[in-house]
Structure formats: C-alpha cells, structure tokens
Design a protein that fits this description.
Shape: globular
Largest sheet: 10 strands, mixed
Number of strands: 19
Helix content: 25-40%
CATH architecture of the largest domain: 3-Layer(aba) Sandwich
CATH class of the largest domain: Alpha Beta
Number of helices: 12
Strand content: 15-25%
Number of domains: 2
Length: about 450
C-alpha cells in the first residue's frame, strides 16, 4: 500500500517542518516531497547526520536524504530566479543535478519581480501597522491568481511567444499601484520596479522551464497516486488566511486542505498520516498577537534570526490555548510532535500557558478559542482582543540537570493534558533522529 505523510506547523511557522520532512523521507523511503502551499519565503532548516546544514526554500527538505524528487504543485508559488540560485547552492553541498530532480506543475503561479518589489513598498507604507510580511510577494501573487485568472503568470506561460507581452502588462499594473504609495521611504524601491529588465526575465524564465521537468496536472496527480510521498507544508496554521489572526496572516491555506485536495483528485487510496508540529516553546516571526511572548526568555540560538521585513524573531512560553485552537481547526492529527526541546535543556523553570485572562468571551469559550466565520471585520476584532489577553501559567521545574529524560517526559505528559491531545513524538536534536512515545 502506498503511503502519504502530510507535515504542517500548528503555530506561527518555524516549528521544524524541514527537519521532520527530512526524517520522514529517511524513515519511509519516500522518493517524492510535495510542496502544497506558500512559496519561496520558506526557510526550512535541515542538519544531516554528517553535520551538513541547509536552509530549504523551494526544494523539498528531503533533498539531502537521498535521490528524492521535489514536486511543486499548483498551490506552490514559484520564484524561478531564487530557485535557480538554490539549485547552485545545493550543488555546492554535493547534490548532483538538483534541477533534474525538480518536477513542476504547469499550473503553478510565478512570483514576478514586480510583486516582490510592490510587496516591500506596501509593507513600508504601512509604517507602524506592518502585517509582518516576508517581502516575497506571496499575497500579491495569490491575489493575481484569484483576481486575474489566466491573465496572471503561470509556469505554462514561460515558453509561450507572448511571454514578454504578458510581463509588460503585469509590470504596468504593478507600477501604477506602486506610484500610489510613492514617498521618500519608497522612492528607491519605486525606481527599481520601474527599471525591471523584462528581456532578462524572459531569458531567465525560459532557462528555468528548460531546466526542470514541467508536467500537466494529470501527470502530476499520477505521481501522487502511484508513489509514497511526503507533503511539506509552509508557515503555520495560526497564519492561515481563513483561520489565522487577520491581518497578520498569509494569503494561503496552511492547513492540510491543499494536500488532501491533491490526493483526492489523484484518486489516492493508500494510507494518509497527518503530522502536526509545535515547538516546546512559543515563537513568532513578524507582527501580530503573541499572548505568551516573554522578552526575558533566553534560549539557545536557532537558525531563525531578525530580518528587515519580518523584524525580530520573538520568543515566549508554550501556549496551549493557541495550540488547541490549531488542533481544532485541522480536526486533530495522527502524529503530534513537539520540537526544539534541546534548546530548553538549560531552563531551571518552565511555564505552560493554560488559559487567557481578559479575553472577550465572544472569541473564547471554555478555554478554547472559537473558530469564526471568515469575515474580515470579525477576524480583525478577535485579533485586537488577543492583543489585550494575558496568559495564565502553570509553572514547573525545568529540564536541566541529571534527570533530563524524566523531566522531559513529565513536560510532554503535561502538554498532552493541556492540549487534550496525545503527544506522540518529539525531537531534541536538529539532526534527523526523532523519538516516538506513542503510535500514531
């Protein structure tokens, strides 16, 4: 029987999806890693058994585990220039012919340089009300798909004679939008968006198309139906465009939805394992509510650092209220894993948020955040209420000392109780090894 594992983050991203995809590829022998949401903004870190480290963006995070193929579905937003650069980096790590191991749906949208630049202009123009965008043009590209239909740019367009004409038309639209936001802070980016070299991108896009294996939708679905796969999600459920905390969310489905849709369309009749990940502590990269944020919390350095667009990488304690909400949104998981526990080894005391104080009861009932209708005003009001909520903590002894394993299991048992969902597995190393406590 064929097997499919789907990996999603249940937080605000940065839950260790790359490492778990790498692990699952090694464990199951799957030859195909499928990207099913998000785009080139991913930063999925993998550390191999021989200490090679790489940050995956558009290639699947199982690429270093063997001769795996990356499959970019129609739900993946592709940035060809960055993908070609990523392929060169992988070759420098010893990966042979990475582009030959890239399978792309002809219906996948393309992130243009205009959308990247306009995204940055928009975020700068928001001033102190930034959304926390990563500046890669994800939302704008998805908006093109939804609003322009076939007039948006797709992989299938990259070999058509009218490619330059289409790029020119898209460029004019984006420049007009950028002009409305022109000021002293955006003038440099505005100059860049007006000077994009269309001929350069026509050549680059055609080179990209010729370098990878572009397939029809039916060919793509055949791969999913006939092979073991690992689906690699991007970002996290708390950033989902429908269930996240608007406007600090992504224009993408970050749940299992897209992956399950692809498997259903493929007529897949094998086993499906839904894998949900949470860090052992709270993190958030970018603006937005973070009830358990604690600026005094000091943890071992990780790969996620401050950047110009998302700002500071924020830390806090484990938030079981937000985690329960994410689990409710996805209907539970087959394997719930807690990650990055090695970064907590030195802590003398640990806190678990078990409830919120001062939260409007229109949004919180019985200790659970309610799933709301996808109405933007309602969602924005909930976000404002979350900004005012205060955490209620359970405090316990830390993981430091000689009784690490005993303390670790106690902590995971308490998380299981707080989440009302069993914790099946955990990771306390950045390498592929993961520990299973329970069967999924």
């Amino acid at each position: 029987m064929t097997r499919s594992h789907i990996v999603v983050g249940l937080g605000y991203g940065d839950e260790g999806k790359g490492s778990w995809v790498d692990h699952l590829v090694r464990q199951t022998g799957a030859q195909y890693v499928v990207r099913f949401n998000g785009g080139a903004q991913a930063m999925h870190h993998v550390v191999t058994p021989d200490d090679r480290m790489y940050r995956f963006a558009q290639f699947g995070s199982g690429t270093l585990a063997g001769s795996t193929f990356t499959c970019l579905s129609r739900f993946m937003l592709i940035e060809p220039e960055a993908l070609l650069a990523e392929a060169e980096q992988l070759e420098s790590l010893g990966v042979q012919n990475p582009l030959g191991r890239m399978i792309v749906s002809e219906n996948a949208p393309i992130i243009t340089p205009f959308n990247r630049l306009l995204n940055k202009i928009q975020e700068i123009s928001r001033g102190g009300s930034r959304h926390g965008s990563c500046g890669f043009g994800i939302g704008l590209t998805q908006a093109d798909v939804e609003n322009l239909g076939d007039q948006a740019l797709y992989v299938r367009d990259l070999i058509k004679p009218e490619l330059r004409k289409k790029l020119a038309w898209l460029s004019i639209r984006k420049v007009e939008l950028a002009r409305e936001l022109l000021n002293e802070e955006t003038v440099e980016l505005f100059s860049q968006i007006t000077e994009v070299d269309l001929d350069y991108y026509v050549e680059l896009y055609r080179s990209f198309y010729a370098s990878v294996r572009v397939v029809t939708e039916s060919e793509f679905l055949n791969i999913l139906r006939e092979n073991d796969t690992v689906f690699e999600g991007a970002q996290g459920v708390l950033l989902d465009q429908q269930y996240g905390f608007f406007p600090h969310c992504t224009r993408s489905n970050t749940t299992f939805e897209n992956a399950l849709k692809l498997l259903d369309e493929a007529g897949f009749d094998g086993s499906i394992t839904k894998v949900g990940l949470l860090r052992g502590y709270g993190t958030r990269h970018g603006a937005g509510p973070f009830v358990t944020e604690d600026s005094t919390l000091e943890l071992a350095t990780c790969h996620n650092q401050t950047n110009a667009w998302q700002g500071e990488f924020r830390l806090g304690w484990f938030d079981s209220v937000a985690a329960r909400y994410a689990l409710d949104v996805v209907g539970g998981v087959n394997i719930l894993a807690i990650t990055n526990l090695d970064r907590m080894r030195h802590l003398e005391q640990i806190k678990i948020c078990t409830g919120y104080q001062g939260m409007d009861d229109r949004y919180l009932h019985g200790g659970r955040l309610l799933i709301l209708e996808p109405k933007l005003q309602l969602l924005a009001e909930r976000t404002a209420a979350l900004q005012l909520a205060a955490p209620q903590y359970m405090k316990l002894q830390g993981l430091n000392g000689s009784l690490y394993e005993k303390g670790l299991n106690r902590y995971l048992d308490l998380l299981s109780s707080a989440l009302e969902h069993p914790v099946h597995a955990y990771s306390d190393t950045p390498k592929p090894h993961k520990t299973y406590r329970l069967k999924g």
